[in-house]
Amino acid sequence: MVWETVMGLEVHAELSTKSKIFCACTTDFGGESNSRVCPVCSGMPGTLPKLNRAVVEYAIKAGLALNCEISRNSKFDRKNYFYPDLPKAYQVSQLYAPICRDGELEIETDGQKKLIGIREIHMEEDAGKLNHNGDTRMDFNRCGVPLIEIVSKPDFRSADEVIAYLEKLRETLLYLEICDCKMQEGSLRVDVNLSVRREGEEMGTRTEMKNINSFKAIARAIEHEKKRQIEILRSGGEIIQETRRWDDEKGESYGMRSKENAQDYRYFPEPDLLPIEVSDEWLEQLKKAIPELPPKKRERYIKELCLSENEAVILTSHINISNLFEQILSLSNETKETANLIIGDIMRMMNNTATLPENLTVDGRKLAVLVTLVSEKKINRNSYKEAVEAVFLHDIEPEKYITEKGLLMISDDSATKEAVKTVLAENANAVADYHDGKAKAIGFIIGQVMKKLGGAGNPEVVKRILEEELKVC
User: Fold this and answer.
1) What helix, strand, coil percent values describe the chain, rounded to 5?
2) Model pTM?
3) Which of 161, 167, 267, 405 has the largest count of CB atoms under 10 Å?
4) pLDDT by residue (tens digit) across 120-135?
């Protein structure tokens, strides 16, 4: 009998607003414990929340990008439960009337495309966290940071599908500039609801694995939980509906608590917040603010810029990479040269320096100067690579660097001819090898001429004059 895995995801994305959802406290990550709180987000009695308009706009943008129906009337509810890092003993969320419903996101795995349904997107406030450094302490800095929870339908059947969905969801949120998606900082957190069933059977009992903090860990957790449930069912046991914690170091999960249902949270309408009404004008304004998203951008790069599919995929893999490419291109008007720079030198240096795309801060204007100089044959390839590396690592001014280093290309025939004659006189054996038909000899001689010219020779001029001199040498 074939076993089938059925999964749905709940993705919590912290929104990149400057202030929290119901107060003016900063949302900046980190800081001294409990230094970024006020009476509202710390749940002091008698305080009243004030909704941050930007949170609603970010949520609607996410819904539009994910093909959701935007609710013209939505409202907040109280989700009641006690946990040490929840100072009010309830969370303001949306159960009955979420801001977005019925969306979809297309994924591709092994060449096969599939639509993943999105049941809803709702807004809510984040909780604080417990710090376990010697003794357990509360840190309420994160309390009230705005979240959207993107709830999928149970449409996933494999870990590969889950990862493909998360990667596409992450790039969408990044391009919308509504979430930085830094999983290491908790900006993107994923809960996996998983059950198994025999072919043809109804849905099995699900478990929920919470807050897994990397895509690699998510894939491992799915495979482990699938095997665990199958083994229990094969041995005649029953799956308990529960929340489980994944330990990536040990490669195993363990039960935390029984999984609650909606009625366990005693939801009721939030009395301190008015319903949200989304007008036609507001919705149109937000539709116009949706940027070009990666699928459309890739299509444009291929059709209009004549880039290959692989080049287009790499150049749109992260918003910072795409923005850098477009900035350099707009200033230099050199498509191929700019694409080769990003895919070749920049990617190589990012890899060598362990620079993540989200931390890419190299100055596109300075790189555009170098692209223009090499395209106009004012510097040669070696000088170009040297200067690009200096911009990436040390943020130098390219024109000043090239002048001080003497990297402007020497295209003067007389200076080049003098260097060629000197090199030929000093390397009689290489000249003889060239006349004997040894192919490597010409490369060696050109290298010596370039060295004589301080690395700033024009390769085309060097080759032309060298060939002329070798005829009479």
Assistant:
1) 45, 20, 35
2) 0.84
3) 161
4) 999 999 999 887 766 6
Using CA atoms, how far apart are residues 91 and 85, in angstroms rounded to an integer?
A: 11
Q: Residue 267 is encoded by which pair of tokens?
A: 């939801």
Alpha helices in 177-293 (DSSP H): 215-234, 280-288
Residue with the larger pLDDT of the pair 427 and 88: 88
User: Do residues 190 and 212 make contact, with C-beta atoms less than 8 angstroms apart?
Assistant: yes
Q: Is 386 exposed, middle or buried (0-12, 13-18, 19+ CB in 10 A)?
A: middle
Give the torsion sign (CA, 182, 183, 186, 188).
Answer: positive
In angstroms, the Cα distances linking 296 to 300, 384, 396 are: 6, 32, 35
Q: Any bridge partners for residue 90, and if so which?
A: 80
- Specify the CATH number of the domain 413-472: 1.10.10.410
Task: Give me the DSSP letters along 138-206.
Answer: EE-TTTT-EEEEEEE-S-B-SHHHHHHHHHHHHHHHHHHTS----GGGTSEEEEEEEEEEETTPPP---
> From the CB of residue 281, how many other CB atoms can be counted at a distance below 10 Å?
8
Distance CA 314, CA 338 (A): 13
Decide: 94 and 75 in contact? Cβ < 8 Å. Answer: yes
Residue 298 is classified by DSSP as H
CA distance 121 to 69: 10
State the DSSP string of 427-448: -HHHHHHHHTT-THHHHHHHHH
pLDDT at 412 over 60: no
pLDDT at 469: 65
The residues of the chain that CATH labels 1.10.10.410 are 413-472
Q: How far apart are CA 126 and CA 131, in angstroms?
A: 16
CA distances to 6, 248, 332, 407 from 254, in Å = 20, 11, 56, 62
Beta strands 276-277 and 268-269 are: unpaired
Contacts of 255 (CB under 8 A, 6+ apart): 240, 242, 243, 244, 245
Tens-place pLDDT, residues 256-307:
876 666 667 899 999 999 999 999 999 999 999 999 999 999 999 999 999 9
Residue 36: pLDDT band with limits 50, 70, 90: very high
pLDDT at 429: 76
Instruction: Give the C-alpha separation, 344 to 85, whole Å.
Output: 47
Cα separation, 170 vs 180, in Å, equals: 9
Tokens at 38, concatenated: 């006020």
